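Re: [ENG-882] Designed sequences occasionally contain unexpected residues at chain ends

Forwarding the minimal case from QA. Structure tokens:
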């Protein structure tokens, strides 16, 4: 097994050889996932693992895929989506053009959920949805808009609880155990690699969603991400976080107003 000192050595080497900085990630989850990989891949020593990480780019890609947690869902936390649908979209509707950013979008389920809501509010035609992640593999999958058919029952129920009134199956075509979402929905999506650790702001947004990503970061890295979002949000723009995440303890918190009990903040200054 890997001890704490060895974990730090691995983090330093990954940064030195590949420029990926995991030093601001919470250690407990990082350690669990690296240990799992160490076991599955049958390494006998940390040195052996490090050598593979240093010299085999494909193995490093595999490490990134295993270390990042990519669990996601369509209309995850339906009441959050209901609030977006009923309280935020009507405000964004008054704008001539709407820019959204899903930071840490994983395989795109939340991006397609947003496109469906924008379509139903008749706003998709004037929206642009940027969706970013550090894991290229999940981005490739997101671009295809293809999800396992067996998840559709749960997603359809989430959609209904979020206030969706249509037949959810109208949005996709089922084929060989997969659901392919309509390309009308993805026309306004731009998927791209972007790291919240090392990359900067690239546009100004009316709504930024970064849900279930900051829980894997330590306080300092969370603060960096909040600054990045602050620099990327328009005046009176909205920031949406996951259920276990908050802006409350951030230095920027006092410049934002939290809406209801949902994890949505409005930039006030
Ligand atoms: C648990 S998923 C959350 C997906 C989606 N936002 C949701 O709530 O369902 C976390 C995502 O954050 C991404 N991630 C981790 N570190 C990141 C970083 N430094 N910059 C951008 N994305 C990151 C992971 O690759 C993963 O896809």
């Amino acid at each position: 097994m890997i001890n704490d000192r060895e974990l730090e050595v691995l983090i330093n080497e990954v940064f030195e050889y590949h420029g990926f900085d995991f030093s601001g990630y919470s250690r407990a989850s990082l350690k669990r996932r690296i240990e799992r990989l160490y076991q599955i891949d049958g390494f006998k020593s940390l040195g052996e693992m490090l050598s593979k990480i240093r010299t085999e780019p494909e193995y490093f890609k595999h490490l990134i895929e295993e270390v990042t947690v990519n669990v996601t869902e369509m209309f995850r936390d339906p009441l959050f989506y209901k609030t977006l649908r009923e309280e935020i979209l009507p405000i964004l509707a008054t704008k001539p053009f709407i820019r959204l950013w899903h930071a840490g979008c994983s395989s795109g389920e939340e991006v397609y959920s947003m496109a469906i809501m924008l379509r139903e509010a008749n706003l998709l035609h004037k929206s642009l949805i940027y969706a970013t992640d550090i894991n290229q593999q999940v981005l490739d999958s997101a671009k295809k808009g293809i999800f396992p058919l067996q998840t559709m029952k749960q997603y359809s129920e989430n959609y209904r609880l979020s206030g969706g009134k249509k037949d959810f199956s109208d949005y996709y075509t089922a084929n060989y155990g997969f659901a392919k979402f309509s390309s009308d929905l993805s026309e306004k999506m731009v998927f791209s690699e972007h790291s919240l650790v090392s990359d900067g702001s690239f546009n100004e947004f009316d709504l930024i969603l970064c849900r279930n990503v900051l829980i894997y970061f330590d306080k300092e890295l969370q603060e960096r991400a909040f600054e990045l979002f602050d620099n990327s949000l328009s005046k009176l723009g909205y920031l949406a976080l996951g259920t276990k995440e908050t802006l409350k303890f951030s230095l920027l918190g006092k410049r934002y107003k939290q809406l209801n009990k949902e994890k949505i903040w409005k930039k006030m200054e």
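QA comment: On inspection the terminal residues look reasonable. The chain has a mean pLDDT of 96. Proposing we downgrade this to a documentation issue.
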